[in-house]
Amino acid sequence: MMQARIIAGIFLVMFAFLPSAGAAKIVKDIKVESIGPGLPDESFVLSQISTRKGSEIDSSILNKDVKTLSASGRFTSVKADLEPVEGGVRLIVSVCNKYLLAKPIVVKGCKYFYENKILDLIGLQPNDLVDDQVIAVRVQAVVEKYRKDYYMDARVTWKIGELDHAKGTAQVAVTIDEGKRALVKKVQFSGNTVISSGKLRECMKQPAWFNPCWWLKKHSYEEGEFESAKADIFNLYMAAGYPEAKIDISEVPYYQRGGDSFSKVVVRIEEGPPYTFGKASISGITRYPEKDVSDCLFVKNGQPAKTDVIKASAQAVQDFYGSRGYIDCSVKTIMDTDISNRIINVELVVAEGSEVRIGDVKIEGNTKTKEKVIRREILVYPGEIFNSVKLKRSEKILNNLGYFSTVSSYALKTKSSLTNDILLEVEEKSTGQFGVSAGFSSVDKVMGMVELSQANFDLLGWPNFTGAGQKLKLTAYFGSVRKYYEISFVEPWFMDRKISLETDFFWSEVDYSDYTVWSKGATIEFGKPITKVDRVKLLYGIEKEGLSDVADTNAYVVIDTGELYYFSNEEDAFKSTVQLTLQHDTRDSSFLPTRGNRSLLWGSVSGGVLGLDTDIYKLGASVNQYVPLWFGHVFCLRGRCEVVDSYSDTETVPIMDRLFIGGGRTLRGFEYRDVGPKAVSKTDYDNGVFTGTHRPVGGRSLALATAEYTIPVVSSVRIALFVDAGNVWTDAYDFKFNNLATSAGVGLRLDFPGFPIKIDWGFVTHKDSNITEKAPWVIWIGPDF
């Protein structure tokens, strides 16, 4: 309405010039009048327009004046007219003021929401300027809120009541017709045999009836959602080889209860017959042997005609040429459907294009990150054949650095048709973090963490210290059982080579109730990738460790060996250690893996030629294998084996370096660290009593295995079933697998990034000793401390 009046005013101005288009008109007078409520504010109008008395009329300037007044937000409409006067014209500016809201808005008809909620959504207060257009925009938020809560027929009307015409004041009454609350109680599928109802339900964006989301909130469908769901379901059937599938979706009344009406959505499917692939061919190949390119064709005669296979084949051909410099290569898919025989013949028509080399590699968007930090990660270089596959991989590598929110690459034409430049555009994001969190576990009790980190640190980059791709992290864990403080620095490209350098300074203290183990020291580690998934690391560390706050200084006897042992005899010691680690990692995610393998093999030596007090060595291996199953279910196998032993001047392995399992995240269902060798007081041992108070003393050999099956319930929520088995033995290499402690149980996983929650209940099926204690619950809330 307002735009129409503006346009009408402009046409009136232009019309006024028609009788005397050849003569300039002088503005002799400017008059401001109100054509609506309230008095005209002449001083405001004159201050906003450029046209002045004595100036010549300019239609473009007058048009701009009308738009300026309209944009001020004070008027419902603005109009400019010209009337002839002696020696020129009079400019008449007619404005329709918006009403001044004199009283709070009156809301009627709301039952589901409180009146204050409606007023907050509208957001208008006394002394605000209002008209129909303003109110229409504001009440739309009310309509949308009702629809989100499934009042799909909710309507909002309003009335502006004038109070004082001269003052331009009014009051507003808003009336709400909520209608009935429409909830989808059920989604029903019929006719589907190939695609499971679970998969179809995902297309409908509906959980299963047993899903807690049904209990918390029901869904309602808006206009257009059914068409989108039909397209998604049809694509599922195309991917399965059923191109004649027909889908019909309708919502029908189900029942009513109270003021709510419940409906059900019926999805009727006619799957049609399955199609198979017939002939498969590639044409247009001139530069390479046809057999080499044909290896990219995954379409096989007689197999189900799945569209995913066709798309994968076309992409494989595209990558074949793209990795060899033919970046302009295009692949067209032609499908010839034989309806009578239910066969789809596929032909890939290739337009090879020309071989292209890389001219220059340009980088834009990095305002903080140094250019060399980006260039050292890129897999393509000027002068070589353009490889689009490597370029895509370079994008992924840069994205995984965590410095950028987006990374995009483009091929740029140059003067030469045989050369393209590459433009890499990055958009930086914040890489510094400060976090404070709290948690709880059945092992560590109440825990807290403070962490300050910079993922794109520059040690020499005064004053901002960002942009060199280094990592700095300051961490403090503290709680009723554990305290740990660490400063860590990582240079991922030491001396501009693909060798990482990591230095750590740490201090830790763990209270095990019988005694407290403390250590402080520093490590330096070099790492180098061997392949994409394999890495070797070499670490040197020096630390001082010991026991304090020993609860019992009396003599104890180790049950397995009969040896006399004093906890108070453990001495503080300096330890100098070298460790070599081989790592293999093919997991699809480090936070929540669903497939792949992570294996570690390590060995360390302390003392000997390295000096200091402790002469021990350790060997170990661990394997985590993740296997994806159906509907998001994941099966995981974990195994761990370790040995520690002393040599040279060290007669026995200090208790700080021995191996312990039980409870926590090792053998669930058992008391923390209670599986394995134990000691009892000498008095109890002499009397043949082993059922009283005992203390774990750890061992030199460890074996542990876990099988876990996880089932997704809703997003970020899983149920786990597990079986654990393992033990610790007194002597090195003395594995006695006929005496394993075992347990089984069920768990809950809430996979919230930064604050995961893990709760397990374990049932002991076999003890390693009749005095080993049980602890069914393992609870871990918050970060991994």
Architecture overview:
By secondary structure, this protein is an alpha+beta fold. The chain folds into 7 domains: 2-97, membrane protein fhac (Ubiquitin-like (UB roll), Roll); 99-177, membrane protein fhac (Ubiquitin-like (UB roll)); 181-270, Ubiquitin-like (UB roll); 276-351, Ubiquitin-like (UB roll) (Roll), CATH 3.10.20.310; 357-428, Ubiquitin-like (UB roll), CATH 3.10.20; 435-511, no CATH class; 512-781, membrane protein fhac: a member of the omp85/tpsb transporter family (Porin), CATH 2.40.160.50. It contains 13 helices and 39 strands. α1 runs antiparallel to α3. The model is unreliable at 1-22 (pLDDT under 50).
- The total count of strands amounts to 39
| Tally of helical runs | 13
Strand order in the sheet with the most strands:
18-19-20-21-22-23-24-27-28-29-30-34-35-36-37-39
- Identify the CATH homologous superfamily of the largest domain: membrane protein fhac: a member of the omp85/tpsb transporter family
The CATH topology annotation of the largest domain reads as Porin
The biggest beta sheet, please? 16 strands, antiparallel, barrel
Mean pLDDT: 89
CATH class term of the largest domain: Mainly Beta
Q: Are there runs of 5+ residues with pLDDT below 50, and where?
A: 1-22
**Alpha carbon gap, first and last residue:** 63 Å
Could you say what the CATH architecture of the largest domain is? Beta Barrel
Structural class by secondary-structure content:
alpha+beta
* Rg (C-alpha, Å): 38 Å
Q: Approximately what portion of the residues adopt beta-strand conformation?
A: 35-45%
Helix content percent band:
10-25%
Shape: extended
How many separate structural domains?
7
